[in-house]
């Protein structure tokens, strides 16, 4: 069981997705899982996530319902002791 479960809603964020996942993989702390919840199906986002061959990174898709619904779905799937939201915003990954 991972210490941290990070839930990342994914909706029209393909431009930042790889960089966000890489930022987690670059951490010294490795006891986490990432649950990427696609808010509506995105073939491109799914392909990006699955390029990372890491068993800690999981993905699922829900019908479009917004970030809150995506976070709630991710929380249901989480296995970690501590649940965190990992929002994917352009400012985080563009250095703004």
Widest beta sheet: strand line-up: 3-2-1-4
Give the count of helical stretches: 4
Strand content: 25-35%
Number of strands: 4
What is the percent of helical residues? 25-40%
- What best-fitting shape do the alpha-carbon axes yield? globular
Supply Rg: 12 Å
| Total domain count | 1
CATH superfamily: Spore Coat Polysaccharide Biosynthesis Protein SpsA, Chain A
CATH topology type: Spore Coat Polysaccharide Biosynthesis Protein SpsA, Chain A
SSE order: EHEHEHEH
> Structural class, from secondary structure content?
alpha/beta
Through-space gap between termini: 35 Å
Residue runs with pLDDT of under 50 for 5 or more positions: none
Report the major sheet: 4 strands, parallel
Mean pLDDT score: 89
CATH class: Alpha Beta
State the CATH architecture: Alpha-Beta Complex
Write the layout of secondary structure elements.
Blueprint: E1 4-10, H1 14-25, E2 32-39, H2 43-51, E3 57-62, H3 67-77, E4 82-85, H4 90-94
Parallel strand pairs: 1-2, 1-4, 2-3
Helix pairs in contact: 1-2
What would you say this structure looks like, in words?
There is one protein chain. By secondary structure, the chain is of the alpha/beta class. The protein is built from 4 helices and 4 strands, in the order E-H-E-H-E-H-E-H. It is about 40% helix and about 25% strand. Strands 3-2-1-4 form a 4-stranded parallel sheet, sandwiched between helices. It is globular and about 30 Å long. The mean pLDDT is about 90.
Offer a quick outline of the entry.
39% of the residues lie in helices and 26% in strands. It has helices at residues 14-25, 43-51, 67-77, 90-94, and strands at 4-10, 32-39, 57-62, 82-85.
